[in-house]
Amino acid sequence: MPYHFIYNPTAGNGQSIKVWAIVKDYLAKNKINYTCHETKYVNHAQEIVHDLTNRDEDITVIAVGGDGTLSEVINGIVNFKRTTLSIIPCGGGNDFLGATKLPHENPIAQIEYVLNGTTRPIDFMIINDKWRSINVAGFGLDTEVLQKYYQMKHFSQKFRYKYAVFFKTLFFKWHKGTIKIDNQPAFDTVTLLLSVGNGQTVGGGINMCPTATIDDGYLDFTYIERFPRWKTIWALRRVLNGKILQLSFVKNTKCKQVDIQLSSPVFQYDGILVEGERTLSVKISDQKINFIG
């Protein structure tokens, strides 16, 4: 089965360049037959994978990039039954890595696992019947943080994200929404943020969907209801320490589909901002991805 690497040289603020050099050297030394496809622009990975998988043949696609690159890749898959997927994570947050069985140590350990590991079926999400998402979709504070992050283009990636989290948490605002979970009656809420997950974490390790599992056939839905502002720092510490479910104003459930009417026309999935839509509809796909990791 041929190996096709989808390499994003801009992932991780250029970190992927170093990682790909290590992986490429390993492949050459071990005489592994492969093809590298370097992405040139946004959604190029999707276009490449669409062409590669629109055939009646087995293929292994390995993303070299972050969660956004992996998201583009799954949005390009045509033939799920004959496509096997994995990732060498080298993005800014690499949140999906934590939901997999891939080694965390270094690119050599990861490529060895990918080349020798076993394949398993995993889930993915469908967003607004338009996009596929592999990790987490959300609305509220996390979206505001991303917007601030993308505005600060002239600073380092790590500084931008930390500053954006600090600034937006300090001056956060409440968001209204109407939520419908599976076939239950819809209800109105006021929330700080909400997350719908196949994976567990966002923002480089913030565990917003702690009971999510990528192969159980369910979404993990978490939302933070309105709470007194004086509890902000205390609540933030619980969230950052992975204890979000200890907060009484945090609600969490497993489901197959969540439909949310948004007060602001913007949300994110896999770190990708979507603007101009006031509905966030997320459902677990009936299809599965053959994944190594």
Write out key terms for the chains shown.
single chain; 293 residues; alpha+beta; 11-stranded antiparallel sheet; 6-stranded mixed sheet; globular
Brief synopsis:
The protein has helices at residues 15-29, 44-53, 67-76, 107-116, 141-151, 157-170, 232-240, and strands at 3-7, 34-38, 59-65, 83-89, 119-122, 125-127, 131-133, 136-140, 175-181, 187-197, 201-202, 206-207, 219-225, 250-255, 257-262, 266-269, 272-275, 279-284, 289-292. It is of the alpha+beta class and 293 residues long.
Give your account of this protein's structure:
This protein is an alpha+beta fold and 293 residues long. The protein is 27% helix and 33% strand. The chain has helices spanning 15-29, 44-53, 67-76, 107-116, 141-151, 157-170, 232-240, and strands at 3-7, 34-38, 59-65, 83-89, 119-122, 125-127, 131-133, 136-140, 175-181, 187-197, 201-202, 206-207, 219-225, 250-255, 257-262, 266-269, 272-275, 279-284, 289-292. Strands 6, 7, 8, 9, 10, 13, 14, 15, 16, 17 and 18 form an 11-stranded antiparallel sheet that branches. Helix 2 packs parallel to helix 3 (67-76). The mean pLDDT is 93.
